[in-house]
Amino acid sequence: MRLTAMAMIAALAMMGCARQNPDDTGTFGPNPTIGEPTAGALPTLNNAKAVGWPAGAAPTPAAGLAVTRYAEGLAHPRWLYLLPNGDVLLAESSSKPSEGGGVETMVANHLMRSGGAFAESANHITLLRDSDGDGVVDLKSQYIGGLNQPMGMALIGDSLYVANTDALLRFAYVAGAETITAPGEKVLDLPYRAEGNGHWTRTLLASADGSKLYIAVGSASNIADFGMEAEKERAAIWEVDLATKQKRVFASGLRNPVGIAWEPSTTTLWTAVNERDLLGDDLAPDYMTSVKDGAFYGWPYSYWGKIVDTRVEPQNAALVATAIAPDYALGAHTASLGLHFYTGATLPAYTGGALIGQHGSWNRSQHAGYKVIFVPFAGGKPNGPPQDVLTGFLNAKGEAQGRPVGVVQDRTGAILVADDVGKIVWRVAAQ
Questions:
Q1: Which of 103, 183, 283, 292 could form a disulfide with 5 if both were Cys (CB 3.0 to 4.6 A apart)?
Q2: pTM > 0.85
Protein backbone atom coordinates (compact mmCIF):
# COMPACT_ATOMS: atom_id res chain seq x y z
CA MET A 1 0.00 0.00 0.00
CA ARG A 2 1.38 3.37 -0.98
CA LEU A 3 -0.07 6.83 -0.39
CA THR A 4 -0.87 9.11 -3.29
CA ALA A 5 1.08 12.32 -3.51
CA MET A 6 -2.05 14.45 -3.04
CA ALA A 7 -3.09 12.47 0.04
CA MET A 8 0.31 12.99 1.58
CA ILE A 9 0.21 16.72 0.89
CA ALA A 10 -3.26 17.01 2.40
CA ALA A 11 -2.25 15.02 5.47
CA LEU A 12 0.87 17.11 5.90
CA ALA A 13 -1.19 20.27 5.75
CA MET A 14 -3.39 18.91 8.56
CA MET A 15 -0.47 17.81 10.71
CA GLY A 16 -0.86 19.15 14.23
CA CYS A 17 1.18 19.17 17.38
CA ALA A 18 -1.00 17.04 19.64
CA ARG A 19 0.15 16.80 23.22
CA GLN A 20 1.25 13.58 24.80
CA ASN A 21 -1.45 12.11 27.03
CA PRO A 22 -1.34 9.00 29.23
CA ASP A 23 -2.11 5.90 27.20
CA ASP A 24 -5.49 4.55 28.29
CA THR A 25 -6.20 2.50 25.19
CA GLY A 26 -5.40 -0.93 26.61
CA THR A 27 -2.57 -1.44 24.13
CA PHE A 28 -0.03 -2.49 26.76
CA GLY A 29 0.45 -5.86 28.41
CA PRO A 30 0.03 -9.54 27.58
CA ASN A 31 -3.61 -9.22 26.51
CA PRO A 32 -3.99 -5.88 24.72
CA THR A 33 -7.19 -4.56 23.21
CA ILE A 34 -7.04 -5.22 19.47
CA GLY A 35 -9.85 -3.21 17.91
CA GLU A 36 -10.90 -2.67 14.33
CA PRO A 37 -8.83 -0.51 11.96
CA THR A 38 -9.87 3.14 12.16
CA ALA A 39 -7.61 4.84 9.63
CA GLY A 40 -9.38 7.41 7.46
CA ALA A 41 -8.86 8.37 3.85
CA LEU A 42 -5.85 10.50 4.83
CA PRO A 43 -2.99 9.19 6.97
CA THR A 44 -2.22 10.67 10.37
CA LEU A 45 1.11 12.49 10.14
CA ASN A 46 1.82 13.88 13.58
CA ASN A 47 5.59 14.08 13.84
CA ALA A 48 7.02 15.79 16.91
CA LYS A 49 9.28 18.53 15.59
CA ALA A 50 12.86 18.06 16.81
CA VAL A 51 14.07 21.11 18.75
CA GLY A 52 16.74 19.75 21.12
CA TRP A 53 17.26 20.43 24.80
CA PRO A 54 17.59 23.93 26.28
CA ALA A 55 20.77 24.57 28.23
CA GLY A 56 20.69 22.73 31.53
CA ALA A 57 17.42 20.92 30.81
CA ALA A 58 16.98 17.17 31.18
CA PRO A 59 14.28 14.50 31.04
CA THR A 60 12.38 13.65 34.20
CA PRO A 61 13.46 10.49 36.07
CA ALA A 62 11.22 8.28 38.20
CA ALA A 63 11.11 8.91 41.95
CA GLY A 64 14.36 8.00 43.65
CA LEU A 65 16.44 8.43 40.50
CA ALA A 66 18.67 11.21 39.21
CA VAL A 67 19.59 11.92 35.59
CA THR A 68 22.79 13.56 34.36
CA ARG A 69 24.47 14.21 31.02
CA TYR A 70 26.96 11.38 30.54
CA ALA A 71 28.15 12.62 27.13
CA GLU A 72 26.84 15.37 24.84
CA GLY A 73 27.57 17.20 21.61
CA LEU A 74 27.17 13.89 19.75
CA ALA A 75 26.12 13.14 16.17
CA HIS A 76 22.83 11.25 16.39
CA PRO A 77 23.67 8.70 19.12
CA ARG A 78 21.62 5.53 18.56
CA TRP A 79 23.06 2.40 20.16
CA LEU A 80 25.22 1.56 23.18
CA TYR A 81 27.47 -1.37 24.03
CA LEU A 82 29.37 -1.99 27.28
CA LEU A 83 32.86 -3.47 26.92
CA PRO A 84 34.34 -5.78 29.59
CA ASN A 85 36.81 -3.08 30.75
CA GLY A 86 33.97 -0.61 31.42
CA ASP A 87 34.37 1.45 28.25
CA VAL A 88 31.14 2.20 26.39
CA LEU A 89 30.86 2.08 22.62
CA LEU A 90 28.31 4.38 21.00
CA ALA A 91 27.05 3.93 17.44
CA GLU A 92 26.25 7.35 15.98
CA SER A 93 24.17 6.76 12.90
CA SER A 94 21.17 8.23 11.15
CA SER A 95 18.63 7.72 8.42
CA LYS A 96 19.44 8.85 4.90
CA PRO A 97 17.18 11.03 2.75
CA SER A 98 15.14 9.05 0.24
CA GLU A 99 16.44 9.37 -3.29
CA GLY A 100 14.47 10.19 -6.42
CA GLY A 101 12.04 12.91 -7.34
CA GLY A 102 8.34 13.25 -6.79
CA VAL A 103 6.10 14.69 -4.13
CA GLU A 104 6.00 11.50 -2.02
CA THR A 105 9.78 11.53 -1.64
CA MET A 106 9.74 15.23 -0.83
CA VAL A 107 7.09 14.81 1.88
CA ALA A 108 8.79 11.75 3.37
CA ASN A 109 12.11 13.58 3.59
CA HIS A 110 10.41 16.61 5.14
CA LEU A 111 8.88 14.45 7.87
CA MET A 112 12.15 12.71 8.61
CA ARG A 113 14.08 15.98 8.69
CA SER A 114 11.51 17.65 10.94
CA GLY A 115 11.71 14.70 13.33
CA GLY A 116 15.50 14.94 13.55
CA ALA A 117 16.25 11.72 11.65
CA PHE A 118 19.13 13.04 9.52
CA ALA A 119 22.67 13.82 10.70
CA GLU A 120 25.38 14.26 8.09
CA SER A 121 28.25 13.94 10.59
CA ALA A 122 27.13 10.57 11.95
CA ASN A 123 28.00 7.01 10.86
CA HIS A 124 30.87 6.14 13.13
CA ILE A 125 31.43 4.53 16.52
CA THR A 126 32.63 6.59 19.47
CA LEU A 127 34.38 5.31 22.60
CA LEU A 128 33.23 6.80 25.91
CA ARG A 129 35.45 6.22 28.94
CA ASP A 130 34.62 6.98 32.56
CA SER A 131 37.94 6.02 34.11
CA ASP A 132 37.00 6.40 37.77
CA GLY A 133 33.34 5.41 37.59
CA ASP A 134 32.08 8.77 38.84
CA GLY A 135 29.47 9.04 36.10
CA VAL A 136 31.39 11.61 34.04
CA VAL A 137 33.04 10.70 30.74
CA ASP A 138 36.67 11.81 30.78
CA LEU A 139 37.61 10.46 27.33
CA LYS A 140 35.60 10.64 24.13
CA SER A 141 37.33 9.24 21.04
CA GLN A 142 36.22 8.32 17.53
CA TYR A 143 36.72 4.59 17.73
CA ILE A 144 35.84 3.41 14.21
CA GLY A 145 35.17 5.72 11.27
CA GLY A 146 34.05 5.27 7.69
CA LEU A 147 31.01 3.12 8.49
CA ASN A 148 27.65 2.85 6.72
CA GLN A 149 24.80 3.38 9.18
CA PRO A 150 26.31 1.24 11.96
CA MET A 151 24.11 0.01 14.79
CA GLY A 152 24.76 -3.34 16.46
CA MET A 153 28.06 -4.21 18.17
CA ALA A 154 29.23 -7.45 19.77
CA LEU A 155 32.63 -8.40 21.24
CA ILE A 156 33.60 -12.07 21.02
CA GLY A 157 37.13 -12.81 22.22
CA ASP A 158 39.44 -10.44 20.36
CA SER A 159 36.93 -9.78 17.56
CA LEU A 160 34.58 -6.82 17.59
CA TYR A 161 31.63 -7.32 15.25
CA VAL A 162 29.82 -4.28 13.86
CA ALA A 163 26.62 -4.34 11.83
CA ASN A 164 26.46 -1.77 9.07
CA THR A 165 23.10 -1.52 7.33
CA ASP A 166 24.46 -3.58 4.41
CA ALA A 167 27.16 -5.83 5.92
CA LEU A 168 28.48 -7.52 9.04
CA LEU A 169 32.09 -6.48 9.73
CA ARG A 170 34.77 -7.85 12.04
CA PHE A 171 37.52 -5.70 13.61
CA ALA A 172 40.53 -6.75 15.66
CA TYR A 173 39.93 -5.63 19.25
CA VAL A 174 42.58 -4.54 21.76
CA ALA A 175 41.34 -3.80 25.28
CA GLY A 176 42.00 -0.21 26.30
CA ALA A 177 42.77 1.06 22.80
CA GLU A 178 41.23 4.46 22.08
CA THR A 179 40.71 3.85 18.37
CA ILE A 180 40.71 1.17 15.68
CA THR A 181 42.36 2.26 12.45
CA ALA A 182 42.74 -1.09 10.65
CA PRO A 183 39.94 -1.78 8.16
CA GLY A 184 37.29 -4.28 9.09
CA GLU A 185 36.83 -7.65 7.41
CA LYS A 186 33.45 -8.22 5.80
CA VAL A 187 31.92 -11.38 7.24
CA LEU A 188 28.75 -11.37 5.13
CA ASP A 189 26.33 -9.12 3.30
CA LEU A 190 23.08 -7.99 4.91
CA PRO A 191 19.84 -7.16 3.03
CA TYR A 192 19.96 -3.69 1.51
CA ARG A 193 17.94 -1.79 -1.13
CA ALA A 194 19.55 1.32 -2.59
CA GLU A 195 16.17 2.51 -3.90
CA GLY A 196 14.37 2.22 -0.56
CA ASN A 197 15.90 0.46 2.43
CA GLY A 198 13.12 1.11 4.90
CA HIS A 199 14.07 -0.13 8.35
CA TRP A 200 17.83 0.14 8.05
CA THR A 201 19.06 -0.70 11.55
CA ARG A 202 20.86 -4.01 12.19
CA THR A 203 21.44 -5.07 15.79
CA LEU A 204 23.64 -7.88 17.10
CA LEU A 205 23.61 -10.38 19.96
CA ALA A 206 26.24 -13.05 20.62
CA SER A 207 25.43 -16.53 21.88
CA ALA A 208 26.76 -17.46 25.32
CA ASP A 209 29.55 -19.59 23.86
CA GLY A 210 30.49 -17.01 21.23
CA SER A 211 29.94 -19.39 18.32
CA LYS A 212 26.94 -17.61 16.87
CA LEU A 213 25.62 -14.11 16.24
CA TYR A 214 21.97 -13.15 16.04
CA ILE A 215 21.15 -10.24 13.72
CA ALA A 216 17.86 -8.32 13.71
CA VAL A 217 16.91 -7.23 10.18
CA GLY A 218 13.85 -5.00 9.64
CA SER A 219 11.51 -4.95 6.66
CA ALA A 220 12.09 -2.71 3.67
CA SER A 221 8.61 -1.19 3.89
CA ASN A 222 5.42 -0.93 5.93
CA ILE A 223 3.48 -3.94 4.59
CA ALA A 224 5.60 -5.33 1.74
CA ASP A 225 4.83 -2.28 -0.41
CA PHE A 226 7.54 -3.25 -2.92
CA GLY A 227 6.47 -6.89 -3.08
CA MET A 228 7.69 -9.91 -1.13
CA GLU A 229 10.77 -10.40 -3.27
CA ALA A 230 12.11 -7.08 -1.91
CA GLU A 231 11.52 -8.47 1.60
CA LYS A 232 13.51 -11.66 1.14
CA GLU A 233 15.18 -12.62 4.46
CA ARG A 234 13.99 -9.36 6.02
CA ALA A 235 11.54 -8.78 8.88
CA ALA A 236 13.51 -11.49 10.63
CA ILE A 237 16.20 -12.44 13.09
CA TRP A 238 19.13 -14.28 11.57
CA GLU A 239 21.43 -16.81 13.19
CA VAL A 240 25.02 -16.75 11.87
CA ASP A 241 27.54 -19.52 12.53
CA LEU A 242 30.81 -17.60 12.82
CA ALA A 243 33.07 -20.59 12.08
CA THR A 244 31.42 -21.30 8.71
CA LYS A 245 29.88 -17.87 8.02
CA GLN A 246 26.65 -19.69 7.21
CA LYS A 247 23.37 -17.97 8.07
CA ARG A 248 19.76 -18.99 8.48
CA VAL A 249 16.52 -17.23 9.38
CA PHE A 250 15.97 -18.02 13.05
CA ALA A 251 12.51 -16.39 13.22
CA SER A 252 10.42 -14.43 10.71
CA GLY A 253 7.33 -12.26 10.40
CA LEU A 254 8.85 -9.61 12.73
CA ARG A 255 8.22 -6.32 10.92
CA ASN A 256 11.05 -4.32 12.49
CA PRO A 257 12.89 -6.12 15.29
CA VAL A 258 15.44 -3.76 16.84
CA GLY A 259 16.50 -4.48 20.42
CA ILE A 260 17.50 -8.13 21.00
CA ALA A 261 18.65 -9.50 24.35
CA TRP A 262 18.90 -12.65 26.45
CA GLU A 263 16.42 -12.83 29.33
CA PRO A 264 18.80 -13.52 32.24
CA SER A 265 16.92 -16.18 34.22
CA THR A 266 16.07 -18.44 31.27
CA THR A 267 18.62 -17.27 28.63
CA THR A 268 15.71 -17.02 26.18
CA LEU A 269 16.05 -14.65 23.22
CA TRP A 270 13.73 -11.61 23.36
CA THR A 271 13.21 -8.77 20.91
CA ALA A 272 11.41 -5.40 20.74
CA VAL A 273 9.45 -5.01 17.50
CA ASN A 274 7.86 -2.03 15.73
CA GLU A 275 4.55 -3.03 14.17
CA ARG A 276 2.82 -1.66 11.06
CA ASP A 277 1.41 1.81 10.41
CA LEU A 278 -1.69 3.36 8.82
CA LEU A 279 -4.35 1.25 10.59
CA GLY A 280 -5.37 3.96 13.05
CA ASP A 281 -4.22 5.38 16.38
CA ASP A 282 -4.35 2.11 18.31
CA LEU A 283 -3.27 -0.45 15.74
CA ALA A 284 -1.14 -2.34 15.69
CA PRO A 285 0.64 -2.32 19.07
CA ASP A 286 4.39 -2.51 19.11
CA TYR A 287 5.56 -5.36 21.28
CA MET A 288 8.32 -7.34 22.89
CA THR A 289 8.34 -11.10 22.68
CA SER A 290 10.36 -14.19 23.35
CA VAL A 291 11.65 -15.54 20.05
CA LYS A 292 11.19 -19.20 19.20
CA ASP A 293 13.42 -20.98 16.70
CA GLY A 294 11.56 -21.33 13.40
CA ALA A 295 8.55 -19.30 14.51
CA PHE A 296 6.53 -16.92 12.33
CA TYR A 297 5.03 -13.78 13.92
CA GLY A 298 2.63 -12.62 11.23
CA TRP A 299 4.15 -9.82 9.15
CA PRO A 300 3.02 -8.71 6.63
CA TYR A 301 -0.09 -10.88 6.41
CA SER A 302 -1.34 -10.59 9.99
CA TYR A 303 -0.72 -8.90 13.33
CA TRP A 304 -0.98 -9.94 16.98
CA GLY A 305 -0.98 -13.53 15.83
CA LYS A 306 -3.61 -14.42 13.27
CA ILE A 307 -5.50 -11.11 12.81
CA VAL A 308 -5.37 -10.65 9.04
CA ASP A 309 -4.28 -7.33 7.56
CA THR A 310 -6.70 -7.14 4.63
CA ARG A 311 -4.57 -4.52 2.88
CA VAL A 312 -1.97 -7.17 2.02
CA GLU A 313 -2.62 -8.98 -1.25
CA PRO A 314 -2.21 -11.76 -2.05
CA GLN A 315 -2.64 -13.32 1.38
CA ASN A 316 -0.96 -16.50 2.66
CA ALA A 317 -3.56 -18.30 4.76
CA ALA A 318 -1.38 -21.34 5.40
CA LEU A 319 1.41 -19.20 6.85
CA VAL A 320 -1.00 -17.06 8.90
CA ALA A 321 -2.35 -20.26 10.46
CA THR A 322 1.09 -20.75 12.04
CA ALA A 323 1.49 -17.18 13.31
CA ILE A 324 2.38 -16.74 16.99
CA ALA A 325 0.99 -13.88 19.06
CA PRO A 326 3.66 -11.80 20.86
CA ASP A 327 4.16 -11.95 24.62
CA TYR A 328 3.67 -8.32 25.64
CA ALA A 329 2.28 -5.22 23.89
CA LEU A 330 4.18 -1.93 24.26
CA GLY A 331 1.57 0.51 22.95
CA ALA A 332 0.62 1.45 19.42
CA HIS A 333 3.13 3.54 17.47
CA THR A 334 5.50 3.95 20.43
CA ALA A 335 8.50 2.95 18.23
CA SER A 336 9.96 0.74 20.96
CA LEU A 337 13.60 0.30 19.94
CA GLY A 338 15.96 -0.23 22.86
CA LEU A 339 15.71 -3.43 24.93
CA HIS A 340 17.93 -4.21 27.90
CA PHE A 341 17.46 -6.63 30.80
CA TYR A 342 18.85 -4.97 33.89
CA THR A 343 21.28 -7.16 35.84
CA GLY A 344 22.90 -4.56 38.12
CA ALA A 345 22.64 -4.28 41.88
CA THR A 346 22.60 -0.51 42.38
CA LEU A 347 19.00 -0.15 41.14
CA PRO A 348 17.38 -3.24 42.69
CA ALA A 349 13.84 -2.21 41.73
CA TYR A 350 14.77 -2.92 38.12
CA THR A 351 16.81 -6.11 38.53
CA GLY A 352 15.71 -8.85 36.15
CA GLY A 353 13.22 -6.74 34.23
CA ALA A 354 13.30 -5.10 30.82
CA LEU A 355 14.16 -1.47 30.07
CA ILE A 356 12.73 -0.22 26.77
CA GLY A 357 13.61 2.95 24.87
CA GLN A 358 10.48 4.24 23.13
CA HIS A 359 11.53 6.55 20.30
CA GLY A 360 8.05 7.98 19.75
CA SER A 361 5.19 8.09 17.27
CA TRP A 362 4.42 9.87 14.02
CA ASN A 363 1.30 7.93 12.91
CA ARG A 364 -0.91 8.77 15.90
CA SER A 365 -3.14 11.79 16.59
CA GLN A 366 -1.82 11.98 20.18
CA HIS A 367 1.86 11.35 20.67
CA ALA A 368 2.87 8.04 22.21
CA GLY A 369 6.25 6.84 23.40
CA TYR A 370 9.02 9.44 23.82
CA LYS A 371 10.14 7.84 27.08
CA VAL A 372 12.01 4.97 28.69
CA ILE A 373 9.85 2.39 30.42
CA PHE A 374 10.45 -0.66 32.60
CA VAL A 375 8.55 -3.95 32.49
CA PRO A 376 9.03 -6.21 35.54
CA PHE A 377 9.70 -9.91 34.95
CA ALA A 378 9.22 -13.02 37.09
CA GLY A 379 9.97 -16.57 36.06
CA GLY A 380 11.26 -15.37 32.72
CA LYS A 381 8.00 -13.63 31.75
CA PRO A 382 6.59 -10.09 32.03
CA ASN A 383 4.93 -9.64 35.39
CA GLY A 384 3.03 -6.39 35.69
CA PRO A 385 2.24 -3.13 33.95
CA PRO A 386 4.95 -0.87 32.47
CA GLN A 387 6.54 1.76 34.69
CA ASP A 388 7.94 5.10 33.53
CA VAL A 389 11.69 5.46 34.10
CA LEU A 390 12.50 8.57 32.06
CA THR A 391 9.89 10.98 30.67
CA GLY A 392 9.67 14.62 29.60
CA PHE A 393 11.23 14.21 26.16
CA LEU A 394 8.40 16.32 24.72
CA ASN A 395 8.06 19.94 25.75
CA ALA A 396 4.81 21.80 26.45
CA LYS A 397 4.35 22.45 22.72
CA GLY A 398 4.60 18.76 21.86
CA GLU A 399 8.06 19.26 20.32
CA ALA A 400 10.78 16.65 20.73
CA GLN A 401 13.61 17.86 22.93
CA GLY A 402 14.99 14.35 22.60
CA ARG A 403 14.08 10.83 21.50
CA PRO A 404 15.41 7.79 23.41
CA VAL A 405 16.79 4.82 21.49
CA GLY A 406 19.35 2.37 22.90
CA VAL A 407 19.50 1.48 26.60
CA VAL A 408 22.32 -0.27 28.49
CA GLN A 409 23.86 -0.25 31.96
CA ASP A 410 27.37 1.03 32.73
CA ARG A 411 29.91 -0.77 34.89
CA THR A 412 28.51 0.85 38.04
CA GLY A 413 24.96 -0.34 37.34
CA ALA A 414 23.66 3.06 36.25
CA ILE A 415 21.40 3.14 33.18
CA LEU A 416 22.64 4.83 30.00
CA VAL A 417 20.19 6.08 27.37
CA ALA A 418 21.13 7.20 23.85
CA ASP A 419 19.07 10.25 22.82
CA ASP A 420 19.55 10.78 19.10
CA VAL A 421 17.57 14.03 18.71
CA GLY A 422 19.05 15.50 21.91
CA LYS A 423 22.58 14.46 20.83
CA ILE A 424 23.16 13.28 24.40
CA VAL A 425 23.73 10.06 26.33
CA TRP A 426 21.85 10.33 29.62
CA ARG A 427 22.90 8.54 32.79
CA VAL A 428 20.23 7.45 35.27
CA ALA A 429 21.39 6.46 38.75
CA ALA A 430 20.10 6.31 42.31
CA GLN A 431 19.37 9.77 43.66
A1: 103
A2: yes
